[in-house]
Design goal:
Blueprint lengths: L33 H5 L13 E4 L9 H9 L4 E2 H8 L3 H13 L3 E4 L10 H13 L1
């Protein structure tokens, strides 16, 4: 009698990766639409990427999660670009959200401090003369 032959196990092909947003067994998880975060798209405040946002009040209980996050993050001045990155929202959605918050006076927007393009010549001369005296 001959012993039974061992069969090699073959690696089964892996199923193709599922696209993002698909759950198990046919469930589809739809991404959250940006207009649910920002509401209606109306006039926007003239915000730039470097505009600084500062919170005026503590987050009220009626605030949305995004508004609460903005108010907590902007206890100290943060730029719109930083807020957008921390909340993982595109700039366009962030400006609409901040426009609503500016209208409700829960945050203040202020322009960043702009440095002069070229330093003052008299200041440079004063520094140069001071260094020569050393």
């Amino acid at each position: 009698m001959t012993p039974p032959q061992r069969q090699r196990r073959r690696r089964e092909p892996e199923p193709p990766p599922r696209p993002a947003g698909h759950g198990q067994e046919g469930e589809q998880k739809q991404p959250e639409r940006l207009y649910t975060i920002t509401g209606t798209d109306g006039d926007r405040a003239p915000l730039d990427l470097v505009t600084l946002i500062v919170a005026c009040v503590d987050p009220p209980s009626s605030a949305t999660p995004e508004q609460t996050a903005v108010l907590r993050l902007s206890a100290h001045p943060l730029s719109v670009a930083e807020l957008s990155a921390y909340l993982r929202l595109p700039f366009s959605a962030m400006t609409v959200l901040l426009t609503d918050m500016l209208a409700a006076e829960t945050v203040h927007a202020r322009a960043p401090i702009v440095r002069q393009q070229l330093p003052d010549r008299s200041l440079l001369e004063a520094v140069m003369h001071g260094l020569e005296r050393l």
